[in-house]
Request: fold
Amino acid sequence: MNATSQNGSTSRSLLAHAKEADPAAWTRLVELYAALVAVWCRRWGVAEQDIADLLQDVFAAVAAHLHRFRKDQPHDTFRGWLATITKNKVRDYHRRRAGQPAAHGGTEATLRLAQVLDPQGGMNEDDPADEDLATDAAFGEVLARALGSIRGEFHDKTWQAFWNVVVTGRSTAEVAAELQMRPGTVRVAKSRVLLRLRRELGDLPPSP
Reply:
């Protein structure tokens, strides 16, 4: 079921509905981002058998604090906010592990914790977790899910114009000729879909 049939408005974002504790929105939110959070957890040293528990911790924190998320600056994104929550939960995880006997002896957990807390390490705030998301397979899955969610909100020609220009990289003039549209109309179609996609991903505030 697409967003239009669920709530009658294509301008309101997934996050807007999630903030209202809409169960369907929460299900979509978790489905959209769980794989990406799991990739971050693996990248930051969480043991595979512990990832499911970390996912629960992360999304429980998201549920508790989503009302605090604000899009105040151009660089503020839901993904960045989610990455910060994930970092905090992973740090807690490593702190707990540091106080436990290492699985194979030695100080693996303690060393990993030191790396996490090191300002020059891979999880410092100046090294954004999502800087390579464009090539990350997990983010590709996020995009695919988001695109599938909003597809039903657009006419076929609008979607084809967006897809051919943005995804396949064809020129505006070529797509316009093929779809029998004006180049300006193709550009508007592309912008409309991109705007909706960014809103679905939490990168823009909901429209009034």
Notes: The longest helix spans residues 23-43. Residues 1-11, 101-135 have pLDDT under 50 and may be disordered. The CA atoms of residues 31 and 191 lie 26 Å apart. The chain has two domains: 3-135, 154-208.
